[in-house]
TrEMBL record:
Residues the entry annotates as binding a 1,2-diacyl-sn-glycero-3-phospho-(1D-myo-inositol): 39-42, 257
Parts forming coiled coils: 482-523
Gene symbol of the encoding locus: Nf2_1
Cellular component annotations (GO), alphabetically ordered: plasma membrane
Chain segments carrying region Disordered: 410-429
Domain annotation FERM: ranges: 1-274
Gene Ontology MF annotations: actin binding
Main location: membrane
Protein name in the entry: MERL protein
Membrane topology according to the record: Peripheral membrane protein
Species in which this protein is naturally found: Grallaria varia
One Pfam family, short name: ERM_helical
Signal peptide positions (record): none
SMART domains: B41, FERM_C
Length: 544
């Protein structure tokens, strides 16, 4: 509305978002290439806002926490900071080394896609995502597929982290970057030397224009006695009166006002952090702890249900596999039975033929014996006829002997065939018995399978366990939660060491693919700081 003040518009945005940690945020607009923030006690239209319609304001974090994990209570606050810091890194407003960029990208993917699943997150699923600063991509001879492979390798390790946890891990890494949360302004000292003034949650820092990573000198908030400006001259009075007053000039009066706003706001938050939490913050933290504990229990319940469902599915798959195996065994037994029956029929037929042949041979042998007797009884008058007859008799005797042997052999073969037939019938009986057993097993397995298959639909019954859990957060629960948090801190320290090792490993791995000629001034400065062992915090301590 036309009469609205800055606070009215700001409160409307905060209510719409459900945001209670309002002290970090503000409404930003641009006037004559200079950033400005909407004043809460001044009418919106009384500001030097652009005249064109519609009037655009950006809801952004104006002040940054020293420690995101300890200070950011609400999930929505964490999410808004995550979005803003991620955009600043991708837009290269915050310098981020290549190996840390890959790690941050993996947490951003975890926050968006949830747990890694190779069946869902197949090669190329990050092709349309903007995850790395263009400076990092251009610095190495690596294809998008190679970057995706390295991001995915770390993404897979974040399994089990919820969106808010992944975003918080992102912020915990980002807050250690040198340019995180720093507002830079071009200034001149009394000698006219061009410098940069950096304002952040820790204090005021003076930089060379070509080096935004390492300050030349720093004034922590607790060592500043007074800050003031007159026209374009800005004065910083240290608490220690032995230290000289630092004066500088900015290009515009509007910039001086903005610097003073940021100094006052950051100083107030710096002092507030070192006092006991207000009642509102205590209430929010208590609610956040309860919500975190509730979500943790809910996640554990869902994890249990998921595990039980997976076990049920595995059991079902195993039973289905076993059923298929039994069906195959039954089919094979059926085929064996059919082969046994065919073999038995053939053997029976062969035995019958052999038996008939034996009878026929016995009949021929009898006929030969009769012929021999008839020849013997015949009187032979001449010697020649006698000799011929003897020869015929001899031949008849030999033939009869052969016939008798063949008959005996055939008889034995018939007996053997009868025995084989008996064995074949016994084999047939056993095959039928085996088929009967398999059929009974198959029906049992099918009944088991049907009951197991129904298990996932019955899974809500597991909720009976969770419904009986108490959500009454007593002191003992909070003490237990505190102990868990302490344990998590120790684990985090161990993980940090592991993380640093991983970062160094990745840096070494991709170093061979780096194009040295494409290194920016900030890349070179960062590498020099890293080789000296300088970090954001120990550098500020040195130059304070």
């Amino acid at each position: 509305q036309v009469k609205w003040k800055g606070k009215d518009l700001f409160d409307l945005v905060c209510r719409t978002l459900g945001l209670r940690e309002t002290w970090f945020f503000g409404l930003q607009y641009t006037i004559k290439d200079t950033v400005a923030w909407l004043k809460m006690d001044k009418k919106v239209l009384d500001h030097d806002v652009p005249t064109e319609e519609p009037k655009t304001f950006h809801f952004l974090a104006k002040f940054y926490p020293e420690n995101a994990e300890e200070e950011l209570v609400q999930e929505i606050t964490q999410h808004l900071f995550f979005l803003q810091v991620k955009k600043q890194i991708l837009d290269e407003k915050i310098y981020c080394p290549p190996e840390a960029s890959v790690l941050l990208a993996s947490y951003a993917v975890q926050a968006k896609y949830g747990d890694y699943d190779p069946n869902v997150h197949k090669r190329g699923f990050l092709a349309q995502e903007e995850l790395l600063p263009k400076r990092v991509i251009n610095l190495y001879q690596m294809t998008p597929e190679m970057w995706e492979e390295r991001i995915t390798a770390w993404y897979a390790e974040h399994r089990g982290r919820a969106r808010d946890e992944a975003e918080m891990e992102y912020l915990k890494i980002a807050q250690d970057l040198e340019m995180y949360g720093v507002n830079y302004f071009a200034i001149r000292n009394k000698k006219g030397t061009e410098l940069l003034l950096g304002v952040d949650a820790l204090g005021l820092h003076i930089y060379d224009p070509d080096n935004r990573l390492t300050p030349k000198i720093s004034f922590p908030w607790n060592e500043i006695r007074n800050i003031s400006y007159s026209d374009k001259e800005f004065t910083i009075k240290p608490l220690d009166k032995k230290i000289d007053v630092f004066k500088f000039n900015s290009s515009k009066l509007r910039v001086n006002k903005l610097i003073l706003q940021l100094c006052i706001g950051n100083h107030d938050l710096f002092m507030r952090r070192r006092k006991a939490d207000s009642l509102e913050v205590q209430q929010m933290k208590a609610q956040a702890r309860e919500e975190k504990a509730r979500k943790q229990m809910e996640r554990q319940r869902l994890a249990r249900e998921k595990q039980m469902r997976e076990e049920a599915e595995r059991t079902r798959d195993e039973l289905e596999r076993r059923l298929m195996q039994l069906k195959e065994e039954a089919t094979m037994a059926n085929e064996a039975l059919m082969r046994s029956e065919e073999t038995a029929d053939l053997l029976a037929e062969k035995a019958q033929i052999t038996e008939e042949e034996a009878k026929l041979l016995a009949q021929k042998a009898a006929e030969a014996e009769q012929e021999m007797q008839r020849i013997k009884a015949t009187a032979i008058r001449t010697e020649e006829e006698k000799r011929l007859m003897e020869q015929k008799v001899l031949e008849a005797e030999m033939l009869a002997l052969k016939m008798a042997e063949e008959s005996e052999r055939r008889a034995k073969e018939a007996d053997q065939l009868k025995q084989d037939l008996q064995e074949a019938r016994e084999s047939e009986r056993r095959a039928k018995q085996k088929l009967l057993e398999i059929t009974s097993k198959s029906s049992y397995t099918q009944s088991m399978n049907s009951s197991t298959t129904a298990l996932p639909t019955d899974l809500p019954s597991f909720n009976l366990i969770s419904e009986s859990l108490s959500f009454d957060f007593k002191d003992t629960d909070m003490k237990r939660l505190s102990m868990e948090i302490e344990k998590e801190k120790v684990e985090y320290m161990e993980k940090s060491k592991h993380l640093q090792e991983q970062l160094n490993e990745l840096k070494t791995e991709i170093e061979a693919l780096k194009l040295k000629e494409r290194e920016t001034a900030l890349d070179i400065l960062h590498n020099e700081n890293a080789s000296r062992g300088n970090s954001k915090h120990n550098t500020i301590k040195k130059v304070s």
